[in-house]
Amino acid sequence: MKTINVLFVCLGNICRSPIAQGIFENKIRNLNLTSSFEIDSAGTSAFHLNSDPDPRSTNVLNKHGITLKHKARQFIMEDFTRYNYILAMDHLNYEDIMNLSNNKNHDSKRVFLLRSFDNNKTDFNILDPYYGLDTDFEEVYQICNQSIDGFITFLNNEKLIHIHSNNNMAL
Ligand code: 4NP
């Protein structure tokens, strides 16, 4: 069976996109849909290649009962064909990704701002917390969590997945 392939992208691939990846993997596991998905994250830069997630990202995930194993990698051209949904954390990431594309017509249908799925958004960007405080990482967690709930609802509305009504609690 074909999987739905989802890639979360930020600048360094150590703060925001690993948080989003951990949240999404956890929700998909709780929905018993792990085998229907391929999930990963990447950075537009090569600043932190092969690094573990920032300890503040790991801590905020752990605080919410989520563990994640990931080594930072850079976004590559093959990701345009491999992933059905490429979810950028902010406008800069979005533009950096689209600037790499040599088939903008095709790729613009798969690259989105993650926060465009956040029903309670005040902004479309998920701000970079790298130079911030632990509270900024908690805020990134909350925004990613809301956005991912919206994304899962979108997949369900598009009939790409089927969530039983008694399973909404998993979100
Ligand atoms: P991220 O955060 O894009 O959410 O992983 C950053 C991590 C590192 C840097 C910038 C942003 N940096 O400049 O090294």
Structural summary, described in words:
This protein is of the alpha/beta class. 39% of the residues lie in helices and 12% in strands. The chain has a four-stranded parallel sheet, with helices on both faces. It is globular and about 40 Å long. The structure holds 4-nitrophenyl phosphate. The site of 4-nitrophenyl phosphate (4NP) has 10 residues, from loops.
Write the layout of secondary structure elements.
Blueprint: E1 4-10, H1 16-30, E2 37-43, H2 55-63, H3 79-82, E3 85-88, H4 91-100, H5 104-107, E4 111-113, H6 134-157
Parallel strand pairs: 1-2, 1-3, 3-4
Helix pairs in contact: 1-2, 1-6, 2-6
Bound molecules: 4-nitrophenyl phosphate (4NP).
Major sheet summary line: 4 strands, parallel
Helix/strand structural class: alpha/beta
**What sort of overall outline do the alpha carbons produce when their principal axes are compared?**
globular
Q: What's the helix-strand series?
A: EHEHHEHHEH
Bound molecules: 4-nitrophenyl phosphate
How many alpha or pi helices?
Answer: 6
Could you tell me the mean pLDDT? 96
Distance between the ends: 24 Å
Strand content: 5-15%
Low-confidence stretches: none
Q: What radius of gyration results from the CA coordinates? A: 15 Å
Number of strands: 4
Name the strands of the widest sheet in spatial order: 2-1-3-4
Into which percent range does the helicity of residues fall?
25-40%
